[in-house]
């Protein structure tokens, strides 16, 4: 992996222009406040990285600052499980937008314990449960993968964040027990929750995550040249990101940004330009739908300035 | 307590006529099958008892046969907690009909963790949680009360039923965690569930339950002459039974029977004629809404034959 | 019919005490404001009447002042149709509480065009549609009935109110077309709406309505001694009033008042003490669920002071 | 416009292979049966066309057979209104997937009369209403546009289809009145419905519609070289098609096909490969979500065989 920061290269001027515009924009939303570690971040923080297919990374702002990945990791867990069990996964989780706030139990009940998609909490619990059954340690599997793809062996769980999530974990416990009542959870709920919260707690930087996402721009090929997903599966994961990756704002994100993307309440968003590059942007201030305000704005500017939308 | 079975007394001929009619009616619904102890009961079983205010009891069929009380006990837990904390209870649980199947999470989410009424599972969990906080042993408190009112010291928990409920308890665990996420549960969820399932497991006969319900026909006065509820509170419990006591069929039950009543999936139903008498009927076959088929039919006949509806 | 106001009779002192208490209570809610005729009423107006089975009427305050009956008339339309078609009506409208705000379309869609009960707008449209098919003039039939029972030949439609309702009638037009799409409306929607809005527009006083409701306390017998409903049907209408008569507050009304009752957004509420008497109270200020604030409070006091609850 | 069918050209062999595969596949779903003109079509019919940016069209099967366009026209009405009023449109209709069946009123009520997106019926009614206000004849404007872009002056309304839609139009009348009750419809409902049903009734072939859609692959440029939409607006319409274009199956369509697309109950589907080409496929047999079974399968094969997905 070659980290390049020379400003003469392709994406660097675009990133700097975006950072400059974002820096002059007041109003950044509010950091998630349900756990102390997230609430403590400065909403004015901003970093952005672009990774080309060959591992070249461009960055601006706090692009090497580690932050809490949270739901961004749901993409990688999905890919890891899909690589193992293939289409059988889709009998346990759907791939339709939720049309409701991200914690909603309504549709889960209406659809008999099958979550709408892998990126709402209920769906991510199912995917983690299945990867746990297949590996014995879903969180460990995820961490190993992220370290390998990012080339950063220091990535790790944040024990304090994981403990905080557990302390406020009644909603996810309810989701897991609810799906278990429909027979759609295999492992004991406390074990599953431990695995789930540890995944959410992983800390990584924009550079790390842009690189870790590259396999989706390379149609399934990992950093070491081996194949994780078939070309068709990589396309499918991108499609699910586009239609379901930003909570209840997927339509708006597609409309403004026009790229497959996945956000987390830590303020990070990853995005994919298939066949071309990947992006990760981070800024802790969230809008009312849980997406980074400056993050979405930066990606919007990126696709407008470069024309690199999928549409 | 004087148990009277001489057929010359008031209610005996009515009960015998009803039993005769029910006995000639084919089609009795199906016993609840989610736990073995309920599934094993014969759907053709039938018993019915009427208790007058002075403790005189009339009965027919298997009126002295113990059965699993299940949700019927929710009435007594409500009364015991209401006696202790009064109107403050209503800040934690509503008193409106649910308008949805009895396990629904939809309204619970919509109403921010405050269950619609004390007789849906979520509401009963809240009431148990509050009585547990106030007594240290809600299930024990309930059993003591039922023994005293029925005059039957042999009433007890059915450990096998309680264990079965726990084994299939994911739905109730989901409800409890969900309400805990809104701050509406005080005790640890596993402890609460243990108390809740033990209450549901109590075994009693029609005679026992008709007597135990009498305080609601006596406007709040217990068997020993002491007052459990104020006259106004007794009226309120009766009102909640009428509007919410039979799952999603409260309107239909009021229409057909016209009495405050509470059913359980064990096939029992208690009913109150305020100022006059109480009834308990039992037959394990349920309709699709969870109420005893023969039980509702028998109460329908009783109010038609005697004119003892509240309307 | 003998109108009695001598204060020595039974109910007069109770009514005067209630009026006195209500008069000293600040905060009366707000009149309905969606049409001018309702918005113009003084929220401090208050009247209350009690009619005994023999037609004796007691009253206090503005008990002879005509007001807009609105949804109160749904009870009479139901009775008139039920008298004609009997139980077949219940294939087209349910009798369960709605569990949702009174204009909700959600359950109507979920339940395939069969409204939950005859007192939500959708259900009342169905009942009017059926009475219209059977009589050719549902509104005229209703007016004739109300004049006969109240003994007041001057009762009439308020053309201005009917015209206002039509002007703001999009919501009811939506309901009617929606049910028509399920085949549950027989007549052309504009004709049905005209009939429906005319019924709502009838103006009557507390004295008129208490008398007109008496057939429900007399178990189905009209003022002239003829039978409108069977004893069983009268009981059924009372049961539907108790479980569904006050919009989304039926449980609370049963809990506080403990009588079958039906409210309207004009501020009127009728109530029935089966076998004993009927009541009508009027005060235009509404709570957020559409029921008269002073009206509910007055009925609450009445049942507390007299002990005349059904529970 | 040059219609080319020489099999040596790029897309022709792919289309023929697809047609061959589809022809050997049993099970084609069922035509829409709510109006006679749709029910009468043979579910085994199949046609497919690809239009390159320069107007070259390739086709296979019944690609020149006219069929009922139905909801496919919603894309063009959206573009025509967006061209006129710009972003102000989005105050009256959202751009999020519906997450519910295509006629659902639930979310419409929850979101106060603002439909989720322009492609559910409620949203299309709003867009037609707005274009009607701006042009005086939305249906005529649409027909003129389709004739110009397809180069086919014979495109026209099917009066029989429009009359049938009107006869079964209660659901759409309900939607329109419901939104009018929130102030989100400007024109009289009967006039709006007439315009709406005429748009749905337009008959066109795969060749016509592939050509008419080309402006979305040309980033907003019409067949005559003039600009209808800005580049950004064209991207936005494509994004809305991808997330909302196939009723409740948008996630699945994105997953399988990976292209912006819009289906109609006449069995047609249009799709866009931005910057490259457009497609239209037609086969009347529908799946349970209202999309052409053979149509989705053919597009799935097309993107798999050519690699022309946006992901």
From TrEMBL, chains A, B, C, D:
Its EC number is 3.5.1.2. Substrate binds at residues 71, 121, 165, 172, 196, 247, 265. The keyword Hydrolase applies. Pfam families: Glutaminase. GO terms for molecular function: glutaminase activity. Keywords: Acetylation, Hydrolase. It comes from the Bacteria. It catalyses: L-glutamine + H2O = L-glutamate + NH4(+). Belongs to the glutaminase family. This is Glutaminase. The gene is glsA.
């Amino acid at each position: 992996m070659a980290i390049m920061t020379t400003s003469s290269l392709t994406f660097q001027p675009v990133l700097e222009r975006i950072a400059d515009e974002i820096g002059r924009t007041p109003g950044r939303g509010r950091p998630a406040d349900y756990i102390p570690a997230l609430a403590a971040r400065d909403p004015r923080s901003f970093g952005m990285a672009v990774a080309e297919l060959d591992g070249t990374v461009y960055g601006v702002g706090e692009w090497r600052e580690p932050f809490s990945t949270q739901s961004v990791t749901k993409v990688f867990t999905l890919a890891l499980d899909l690589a193992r069990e293939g289409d059988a996964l889709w009998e346990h989780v759907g791939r339709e937008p939720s049309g409701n706030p991200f914690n909603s139990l309504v549709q889960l009940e209406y659809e008999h314990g099958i979550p709408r998609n892998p990126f709402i909490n209920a769906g991510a619990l199912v995917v983690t449960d299945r990867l746990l059954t297949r590996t014995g340690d879903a969180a460990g599997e995820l961490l190993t993968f992220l370290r390998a793809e990012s080339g950063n062996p220091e990535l790790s769980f944040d024990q304090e964040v994981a403990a905080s999530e557990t302390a406020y974990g009644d909603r996810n416990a309810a989701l897991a027990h609810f799906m278990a009542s429909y027979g759609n959870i295999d492992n004991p709920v406390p074990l599953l929750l431990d695995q789930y919260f540890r995944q959410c707690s992983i800390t990584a930087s924009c550079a790390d995550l842009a690189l870790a996402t590259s396999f989706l721009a390379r149609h399934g090929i990992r950093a070491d040249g081996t194949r994780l997903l078939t070309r068709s599966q990589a396309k499918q994961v991108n499609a699910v990101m586009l239609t379901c990756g930003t909570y209840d704002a997927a339509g708006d994100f597609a409309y403004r940004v026009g790229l497959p993307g996945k956000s987390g309440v830590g303020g990070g968003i990853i995005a994919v330009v298939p066949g071309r590059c990947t992006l990760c942007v981070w800024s802790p201030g969230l809008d009312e739908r849980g997406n980074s305000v400056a993050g979405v704005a930066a990606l919007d500017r990126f696709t407008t300035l470069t024309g690199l939308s999928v549409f």
